[in-house]
Amino acid sequence: MDGLILNTEDLYTIGFQKVASRFGKEFTFALKCKIMGQKSEEFAASIIEDLDLPLTVEEFLTETRLVFQELFPESKIMPGVEKLIRHLHQHKVPIGLATSSSKVNYDLKVQKHTQLFDLLEYKTWGSSDPLVKRGKPYPDIFQIAAAKFPDNPAPEKVLVFEDSINGVRAAHSAGMQVVMVPDPRLDRTLAPEATLILNSMEDFQPELFGLPSFSNVSPISTI
User: Fold this and answer.
1) Which DSSP string do the residues of 70-125 spell out, in sequence order?
2) Which of 21, 113, 148, 164 is deepest in the core (most CB within 10 A)?
3) What phi and psi values does residue 11 have, to the nearest 5 degrees?
4) What is the average pLDDT across 64-83?
């Protein structure tokens, strides 16, 4: 969801930097790449350790939560995403959401986009779901999300969309195909596991994966 469907990765950067600045530290893009896809407690611990912040995980999360309560409701849909989601829904292709976000943060982020997210019938919130024991790059969240599809698809029949290195590795570990739409600053050689890497979701051609090319139908499921 974050950075792929919504522009919330930019909002996370603002929030994390606001906390880091209090201690004269910088939340770098390299650190951002390291934590993307992790569960809340995991990324908080990583940031605290890397920046040597004098905070507990709970203190860090509490402070950033106050910032995100203002930022997240202003989230925007990324280019090409709404077109694809509505297209797949129209052709009755099962679509799920596998986000490392908590349910509370999810609700903040989608306040202005509820109709679109209602089309994602099968949802998994990694930071709120006790079944998701480990965040990305472990495959847990994708395995749990895929199990919610009524047709119980084989892993190779599931197509994952991701923007993070951790997410790509998680999908690959789950045995799934994965299309990566990364931040333009990312070194793409760091994601050799990606089935396909695109500059934008606007560039995605569904027919390459047996999905309806805006006129055909296929049994593949997506997360």
Assistant:
1) HHGGG--BPTTHHHHHHHHHHTT--BEEEESS-HHHHHHHTTT-HHHHTT--EEEE
2) 164
3) -70, -35
4) 96
